[in-house]
Every structure is written in structure tokens, then in C-alpha cells.
Amino acid sequence: MTCDEARILLHALIDGELDAGHAREVETHVATCPSCAAELSAHRQMREAMSKADLRFTAPASLRRRIDAALPGTLAKPAATPSNIVPLASRRSMLRGFAFGSALSALAATLVVGVVLRNDDRQLIESEIVSAHLRSLQPGHLIDVVSTDQHTVKPWFNGKLDVSPPVTDLTAQGFTLIGGRLDYVDARAIGAVVYKRRAHIINLFVAQTSSTARQPARTETIQGFNIRRWSDRGMNFWAVSDIGADELAEFGDKFEAATQANKEG
Fold first, then answer.
1. Among 48, 128, 156, 226, which residue is least crowded by beta carbons within 10 Å?
2. Same-domain check for residues 142 and 228
3. Residue 158 sits in a domain of what CATH number?
4. Domain limits at 31?
5. What is the 3-state secondary structure (H, E, C) of the chain?
6. Is 115's pLDDT higher than 80?
7. Averaged pLDDT for residues 107-133
């Protein structure tokens, strides 16, 4: 493991988010790298300092008075005369309004939390995808089955994964198939089909998903690498490379088109 790979995973190691294999790789690297060990120590010191800091904020009493004054029925005024007493029906209506508002707030909060969690999950997986791409660039990690023949690469995955990833030859379109391998993302084995564009490597990671709905492709940049993701027919695809976003989009489009043509043929 290189320093760049280790630094990507340091926060996840501290938070206990790595699986045993990745945690062991990071810890082994840190044990022999003074620079990464110092960075890990600094992160841990910062985490400890923040946990001990008094970050609680108490709202001033003046805020409560302003809120009371703004409530319906002038609740902040003393009930000295009958004219200041809020009728029972009005109080019930007011309480129903509060209850309804609270329910709406709770629902909105639940929806927001759900969106945030989904985004966090997606970002975590995409970060792992980039880490897997980085690992593959180390000597001896890129390919398990070396072949430019799709009829050799695709059968190699049979029996090793829940679903065999589609493999197609795009040499005529400028993207050369060079092989495939097994990789591990989100604590499970997935397939990686490897292509080359000039001197650049493109890793196409493929994983099974429970949804069969098609999700259109989108491209992002993470840790200096472009990553293009789409979903189709029960599979998620992530194409990762240091080539330009337009070339990676071209690869994704041509791969989808060729895969669709193979299914129809």
C-alpha cells in the first residue's frame, strides 16, 4: 500500500469503518511509514481534543421571551382578566396546530436524514472504488486473468461472483480489453474488467444490485480520478480512470451500446 492510498483510508480507520482486510493493510503500512504514522497520530489527537471540548451552546433567556411573545394567544401575558384567557376551543385548535406542525417537521427531518444517509453511503462506496483503482495500479495487482478476448475473460468470472459481469471488446472503438480480476468493495467481492486507453488504465467495476431500474450515467471527480457510474438490469457499474471526463463518458456510452447489442443479438 502506498502513502496516497493509506491517507485516503486513515479517517475510515479511526472511525472503525474499514473491514478487517483493509484495516490490516493500513496498519501494516503505518507501522513502517513515519510520515503516515505522524498523520494518523495527529488525526487521533484532534479527535480526542474535539471529544473533550465543551461545544454545547445554551440559548439566552431573551430568546425564550421572544418566542413566547410570538406565540398565538399572547401566552406571555398574565391571565389577570377573563379577556386575556384563551378559550378552550382555541387552545385545542392551537395544540392541534402544534401537533400537526411537529409531525410535519419530524417527517421532513426523516426524509432529510434518509437523503443524507444515502448520499453518505454512495460517497463511501465511490471512495472505496477509487481506493481499489489505486491498489490495482500497484505492480502485480491489476489483472488476475490476462486476455484481450472477451470470451476468455467473461467465463473466468463464472462461479467466483453472484453475477458474472458483462465483458465486451471495444478495441475498434479505441478502448482495449486487457483482462479482469476480483476486487473487494463495501466488504464484498465484485468484478473488475480492465481496459486500456493509450497508456491509461480504465477499471470497470461491476456489482449486483437488487434494483432492476436503469439509472442514467453521471460523472464525478474523486481524489483526482474521474468516476462514471450507471445502473442497468440489476447491476451497478463504476468506470474509473485518470483520462478526461469526456473520454470516460465516451467509454461508458460505447460499453453500454455494445452490451445492449450483444443482448439483442
1. 48
2. yes
3. 3.30.200.100
4. 3-54
5. CCHHHHHHHHHHHHCCCCCHHHHHHHHHHHHHCHHHHHHHHHHHHHHHHHHHCCCCCCCCHHHHHHHHHHCCCCCCCCCCCHHHCCCHHHHHHHHHHHHHHHHHHHHHHHHHHHHHHHHHHHHHHHHHHHHHHHHHCCCCCCCCEECCCHHHHHHHHCCCCCCCCCCCCEHHHCEEEEEEEEEEECCEEEEEEEEEECCEEEEEEEEECCCCCCEEEEEEEECCEEEEEEEECCEEEEEEECCCHHHHHHHHHHHHHHHHHHHHC
6. no
7. 65
User: In terms of domains, do 133 and 244 share one?
Assistant: yes
Q: CA 141, 147, 153 angle in degrees (round to 5)?
A: 90
List the grid coordinates of 77.
Answer: 401575558
Round the average pLDDT of the chain to a whole number and report it.
Answer: 80
Take residue 226 and report the three cell numbers written for it: 474521474
Distance in angstroms (rounded) separating the CA atoms of residues 211 and 209 = 6
Model confidence pLDDT, tens digit, residues 75-92? 444 545 455 555 555 555
Q: Same domain, yes or no, for 252 and 138?
A: yes
